[in-house]
Amino acid sequence: MAILRQWGPLFDAYTTAIASVMGPEQILTTQQMRDAEQRIFDAGTPVFDLMKLAASRAAEWIRRIAAGRNVTVLCGFGNNGGDGYVIAHCLQKAGLVVQVIAPEPPKTSAAKQARALWGGEALTSGGGAHGEVLVDCLFGSGLTRPLSGALALLLRDLAERHQTLIALDVPSGIASDTGELLNESLPRFDVTLALGAWKIAHFTLPARDWMGEERLVPIGIDLVEGAMEPLCKPHILAPSSDSHKYLRGLGIVVGGAMPGAGQLAAEAAMRAGAGYIKLASQAADQAPNSGLVQESGPLDSVLSDERIAALLVGPGLGRDDRARERLELALAMKKPIVLDADALHLISPEMLDDGVPVLATPHDGELQALCRQFSVVADTRRGRAQALACAANIVVLAKGPDTVIAGVDGRVTLAPAAPAWLSVAGTGDVLAGIALSRMATGTDAFSAACEAVWLHGEAARMCGPAFTPLELAKAVRNALAKRL
After folding, report:
1. For the ranges 55-69, 207-221, 284-298, which has the lowest average pLDDT?
2. What is the CATH topology of the domain spanning 245-481?
3. Which of 73, 276, 400, 406 sits most deeply, having the most CB atoms within 10 A of its CB?
């Protein structure tokens, strides 16, 4: 249920109102968040004061979502439960009918103060509790083990008897650092309010699918060194008044045995900002009627143009000796290069030059193949992308339903959910083409990856359901227009 879209004007107004206190958007591990909060405490802010700030801002979101309906707040025994007591107090002051359920009494000092602030009755079981909005303040972030059977049953039972479900920070039963579901049959929430900073689970499957709409509640967390970042809307400049096609960037798609994929990548590249895109075909294939320049001469001759700004190798390349030769010729140019599809199965450590910017765009199978080739071992998808970027000295765009972008300098960006309609053959070629175009304009590999992922997702949203990859490629132009 698209709760936030349903009440759009109210939420737009509140988002504008708190914009001045938003601070940096960042994605923190549980330990990073604890350390960041501790710095606030060390600077003189009492724990309870920070709790009241966080909970009161969350309560304003909840008040708007509730829109006068009754609210049930489920409180745990720790500080997340303390947030719940403060939320209940704020909502009651705002005139809402509120009931609190707390299976256990508060155990931390701040949570005890919050319980005293609430002052009202707190039921110890769900019993016959009914309401229209349920707020889960049972555990939140930091949980690493499953809920007890009794608590899991209580949460499921209350969820079934409420119309709208809101989770505070991270839904109970989800591991915030991995996105793992720690219990079976967890309820799916309509809204999740992240406190202070995003957590990894907000961007990671399967957890993300259980969180509904996600909103960030600022509480004054400063920028944390080494923090991951969420993918943001890029700011892309229009060409200057004196631009020409080579100044805007010449990008080459190195085609292979299967021409369709290379043509598709080139179609997307032509609409993503570069001034000139060529398809270096392996044979004299007929180009689509779109103004695409296709050259089928010897590849070394095509690549001899010193004005080439960036290359893309992989879509439709094949994996035979001829394909490997074409990849090696492209790498020998020592130009910024995007490696995709078949190129990711052919590449080896000795083929890379540390001085050349490289952007690899693997899906999960290709990411695993690259990790084997570069002797990288990691437990999570994000960890594999980070370790590979470091080991191979390349930017890694690990594409999929939860896309990860890892830089050679340790930076990591996580992308929010894009339309699931992207799960169709050919959309990866479109993404690679966009990345080529952005690199051809002179954008560094990491920024080009971020811009490409954003444009790719926005183009998909513009296409609506059940689009073809060619329709997606053509929509890139309109996505680009939104960021100029």
Report:
1. 284-298
2. UDP-N-acetylmuramoyl-L-alanine:D-glutamate ligase (3.40.1190)
3. 73
